[in-house]
Amino acid sequence: MIDLNSILTPSFIEGCELDKTYTGPQLSYEDGKYGITLDFVREMIQWFKDGKALPKRYVWEIALGAHSAFSSEESLVEVPINEDVTVDVIGDVHGQFFDMLHLFSLTGEPNEKHYLLMNGDLVDRGSWSIEVILTAFAFKWLYPKYMFINRGNHEAKEMNRTYGFEGEAKHKHGEQSYKLFAHIFTALPLATLVSATKPPTAKERAGAILSADGFKRYFVVHGGLFSRDEVTLDEIRQLPRVGRQPGTEGLMCELLWTDPQEAPGRGPSKRGVGISFGPDVTKRWCTLNKVSGIIRSHEVRQDGYQIEHDGLCTTVFSAPNYVDQAGNKGAYIRIDSAGSREYFQFDAKPHPPMKPMAYVQGGLGSLMMM
């Protein structure tokens, strides 16, 4: 297991002074510490749109600022939706930076009345994964209580090696920067419980599974459910994650890798990792844990989202025209303080002339669509 101190050695830090020739967006600097502002984030995004890169020191500071926020969160993050607050749940964006910017223009920036929750797979496939992850991490550093990020199966070493993020990170910012990101990915929470604070409308209450207080709440996770029925929210909350990879079995693997199926029961995964779970599995788990529904990502949906398992399982995918060839819409889900959901779709936007997975070594990753 690798810890942060083994990466951030004194020689590592000493070799990363800010480039004196850099003239781009400036982090604040006071009493020997860097800080972040909304103006910096906005200017950084424009800097990226202009095809420019941040200096390595700023990359590290953003990553470490986000890491500090993730380190204070449990493996299951609890997000109450208070009066007049909404939460937008965003699915996979997979390094499609220009589509993510269009998405953010629709959702709006995170703030005290409007939270964003990115549900994993921010990187790989698309060739602007560094720009995507730095933008997301910058918002997390700036607004740790308004910006939330779950881990996906692509925030993992083996996937990054195969699908482009490792090559991209090393190309743009060096090997040590990649090692830093790889460790911080292990600090990402594994799921988020989004909880309403007002009772649902009479129409939405009918047949709904509610919390003990009579409110709706949603379990937001990248993949899905488990190979056994009795997994509880407390068990997920206590999962050790930092420094660990998902592996090919166990709860972390299943949280990040499983998929719903139409047939009852459980079946083998088409991916070769994890399982598939049926509508009866979903209903039993939601009933046990008093959860109104599961929101997950992990799979392309042509309409950007799909409601399955008698309304208890919703898939949302936010990378439109995935890898420039799938032709799908992107989508996001907005949840209000009563637990009501709205679904929004959007189309892909043009991007500079660079193909998906431009940094994959050997190009074999393009043959697989996990």
From TrEMBL:
<dbReference type="InterPro" id="IPR013235">
    <property type="entry name" value="PPP_dom"/>
</dbReference>
<dbReference type="InterPro" id="IPR004843">
    <property type="entry name" value="Calcineurin-like_PHP"/>
</dbReference>
<dbReference type="InterPro" id="IPR006186">
    <property type="entry name" value="Ser/Thr-sp_prot-phosphatase"/>
</dbReference>
<keyword id="KW-0479">Metal-binding</keyword>
<dbReference type="Pfam" id="PF08321">
    <property type="entry name" value="PPP5"/>
</dbReference>
<keyword id="KW-0802">TPR repeat</keyword>
<feature type="active site" description="Proton donor/acceptor">
    <location>
        <position position="154"/>
    </location>
</feature>
<protein>
    <recommendedName>
        <fullName>Serine/threonine-protein phosphatase</fullName>
        <ecNumber>3.1.3.16</ecNumber>
    </recommendedName>
</protein>
<dbReference type="GO" id="GO:0004722">
    <property type="term" value="F:protein serine/threonine phosphatase activity"/>
</dbReference>
<keyword id="KW-0677">Repeat</keyword>
<feature type="domain" description="Serine/threonine specific protein phosphatases">
    <location>
        <begin position="150"/>
        <end position="155"/>
    </location>
</feature>
<keyword id="KW-0464">Manganese</keyword>
<dbReference type="InterPro" id="IPR029052">
    <property type="entry name" value="Metallo-depent_PP-like"/>
</dbReference>
<dbReference type="Pfam" id="PF00149">
    <property type="entry name" value="Metallophos"/>
</dbReference>
<dbReference type="InterPro" id="IPR051134">
    <property type="entry name" value="PPP_phosphatase"/>
</dbReference>
<keyword id="KW-0378">Hydrolase</keyword>
<dbReference type="InterPro" id="IPR041753">
    <property type="entry name" value="PP5_C"/>
</dbReference>
<comment type="similarity">
    <text>Belongs to the PPP phosphatase family.</text>
</comment>
<dbReference type="GO" id="GO:0046872">
    <property type="term" value="F:metal ion binding"/>
</dbReference>
